[in-house]
Amino acid sequence: MKTALIALLSGLLFGAGLALGGMTDPAKVASFLDVAGLWNPSLGFVMGTALLITFPVFWWVRRSQRPLFAERFQLPTKRDIDRPLLIGAVLFGIGWGISGLCPGPAIANLASGSPQVLLFVVTMIAGMWLRDRTSTRLS
């Protein structure tokens, strides 16, 4: 129960940060990506702030024996750049550029009730499902 509560609070904090920073506004994201047009650099400050928080926390995590609310850390171990990673990065970038949404803000935007956001999330989940079914063939 404690783990679920911590996960819920973390998700709410993350969603609130996305909303406060403007990451849930597809038009703002599109203007950030439009460096050749009417570029809006404000999301760069959001990303920079995220890095300022992330680097010291990761430094702390790597030196800690165990997390505060779990038995052990679950850190990624894979470090190679392979075909599935590159395909995923390209698909992520295309989807982000077309829709102005990435997974976190899309989940947060479900609260808006927008049919476009719902369609995005459904197709995102379908893509994840399809990737799981074809993962051995991509490697």
Indicate the proportion of strand residues.
under 5%
What is the tally of helical segments? Answer: 6
Structural class: mainly alpha
End-to-end separation in angstroms reads: 37 Å
Shape: globular
Largest sheet: none
Secondary structure: helix percent: over 70%
Pick out the low-confidence regions: none
Short description:
This protein has 139 residues and is mainly alpha-helical. It has helices at residues 2-21, 26-33, 42-63, 83-99, 103-109, 115-138. The chain is globular, with a radius of gyration of 17 Å.
Descriptive account of the structure:
The chain is an all-alpha fold. Helices cover 71% and strands 0% of the residues. The protein has helices spanning 2-21, 26-33, 42-63, 83-99, 103-109, 115-138. It is globular. The protein starts with a helix and ends with a helix.
List the helices and strands and how they pair.
Elements: H1 2-21, H2 26-33, H3 42-63, H4 83-99, H5 103-109, H6 115-138
Helix pairs in contact: 1-5, 2-4, 5-6
Task: List descriptors.
139 residues; mainly alpha
